[in-house]
Amino acid sequence: FCSNSCRLQRGSICREGAACRGQAMASIASLPKATAKDAKVWPKRLRVFEEHLVEKGYNPSSARNYATQMAKAFRDYHCSIEAMCSKEFDDLVSEKTYLRPVVRAFARCFSESRPDIRTTKTSGSKASPGREATKGRHKTSKGLSAKEKRLLMRKRTNGFLPGQHRRNSLLMSDRALALAQAAARAASRGPPKWKAGLPPGVRPDTGGRLFWLPKDWYQGVKTTCRSFLRAFVSPWGKIYYHQPTIEQILGRKLGPGDGLEGAMEWAAKQLSQGKSWFGRNPRPGFKADEARFFQLLTRAERAHLLEPSKFLFCVISARRATVREGIQRICNVQSQLLAGGATPVWYVDKASKDAYRKLGLKVVVGGGLVEARNKALCDAQKQGKVCVQISDDISKWVYFKTAQMSVVKSLSEGNEVAKHADRIQVSPVAAARFLLAKMRGAEKPTPRLGGVYPLGNTGMSFGHQPVLRQHFILGDFFVHDRSPCRFDPRMTLKEDYDFTCSHIAKHGSVMRCNRLFAFAVHESNAGGACSARDSQGERERENIRLLQAKWPGVFSLNGKGRRADTQVVMSWKRRKFS
């Protein structure tokens, strides 16, 4: 194949063959070779080159890519830094279209824009200024404080921090912005132009609509792009591709605002319309799946299906409404409960009750974790309703429907079964109605407590029977059918283990549905019971000792994982009676 000196397109066969290639290699060999000094200063030159490109307005990722290409060229050609800035080297790479602009940018950086850091004096050029003359001209971040480094980075990136580079690069120029805003004002007096027909090269987007896109904008997909590229058609018929550009034209923030107040305003607005954080109404999807979901019950169990008004849905929460991530999860849980036809009550701590009320929630001060749980149970008993307790960080409720009813023998087999299962996503209201119907339609002893599979490992759940009657019920989501059992006030953590044992001892059984999952965030999110844990795990060990003393033989240490002494395994059949 032809070398770069033949002026043929890359991949063409050279007529002169090896002679031409040899001539090209000879041309490269004639250039000065890299010295030990070049190799030593090369990393610094690459950093200066990358910083120079960012100063000139290049995207940081493009600047980093240019530096990587120059590093590869230095390894391949073994030329000196001075030679790589010469016209001869530019001619050698002229056929490599991807490398030529990189080499020219490198030459401009060290031969024109920054003559003070050239490595050697070249013919026909002036000598480099002395060290004292250039001292302080190009300040580096070495030896600076954190604040000085931040100010220096702002200066290098035109006032924007590193995380803001891409957003800045998507903004329009003043002239383009003025034209777009004038077109927006003109289009506001009539119907959007895209209703008469989409622009060429745009097709409808069959996916879900983005929650931040204004109603009079059309969401499509570019057909002339080899990769998937969303195209947003404006009311005046012009195509835009990025949210920051649209926000610049409209002059307002789209989606949640910045900071805690912006998140609270956005969540309150969405909940007032029955929508989730992402602006979606979950009701239509639930209606389609819940009919199939209730068909999984037997005829005797379907006779016990109650209306949502017969339940008291209690969300146990604390210190979540003061964190942006917590507000998002609160919004998602509330929207799913509203979509199922329930009006939930939020049992929260006294310190953050006002923050919850700003979101438009029905709030009751419950105190600590165990106090809030017991208060919810008492309130449901006073109203003559079934109590459903829910954590505030559950993302979705999913039932895995499979034709295989037998228990799998290995985790890999269980993962394969879960992979091909029919996943039915339902509302928490439908999940509670389903559990209560199975509890009341079960054989005696009739359980008064029902719940979901306690882990997020779907494959592991198929290693158990679909329904278990004497196993742990997770406190994140359970149904309590008017039982006198209450949570032990001495427990500050792992109170759901003790509550499960109390129900089994009182009523003889519980009901855990191992095909129904409530996917939640455990032990890592801010607020809630996570605030009661300590970094050393001593509080959990204290509660484990209390469990083992109260229920001898039932609880043993997990024995697996990094902190095995803070996790337990429950086995009711091993209970020891004194």
Question: Mind explaining what this structure looks like?
Answer:
The protein is of the alpha+beta class and 578 residues long. It has helices at 18-29, 36-55, 60-77, 81-84, 87-92, 100-113, 131-134, 146-156, 165-169, 174-187, 243-250, 259-272, 283-294, 299-302, 324-339, 353-358, 369-383, 411-419, 428-440, 458-461, 495-507, 538-550, and strands at 202-204, 218-222, 230-233, 239-240, 311-316, 345-348, 363-365, 386-391, 394-401, 422-426, 449-453, 467-468, 477-480, 511-520, 555-557, 568-570. Helix 15 links the parallel strand 5 and strand 6. The longest helix is centred in the N-terminal third of the chain and has 20 residues, at 36-55. The termini are far apart.
List keywords for this structure.
single chain; 578 residues; alpha+beta; ten-stranded mixed β-sheet; 16 strands; disordered N terminus
Morphology call: globular
Low-confidence stretches: 1-19, 113-139, 156-167
- Count every beta strand, where a strand is a DSSP E run of 2 or more residues: 16
Proportion in β-strands: 5-15%
What is the CA-based Rg, rounded? 33 Å
| Tally of individual helices | 22
Structural class: alpha+beta
Structure at a glance:
The chain is α+β, with helices and mostly antiparallel strands.
Topology diagram in text:
Elements lengths: L17 H12 L6 H20 L4 H18 L3 H4 L2 H6 L7 H14 L17 H4 L11 H11 L8 H5 L4 H14 L14 E3 L13 E5 L7 E4 L5 E2 L2 H8 L8 H14 L10 H12 L4 H4 L8 E6 L7 H16 L5 E4 L4 H6 L4 E3 L3 H15 L2 E6 L2 E8 L9 H9 L2 E5 L1 H13 L8 E5 L4 H4 L5 E2 L8 E4 L14 H13 L3 E10 L17 H13 L4 E3 L10 E3 L8
Parallel strand pairs: 5-6, 5-8, 6-7, 11-14
Antiparallel strand pairs: 1-2, 2-3, 3-4, 8-13, 9-10, 9-14, 11-13, 12-14, 15-16
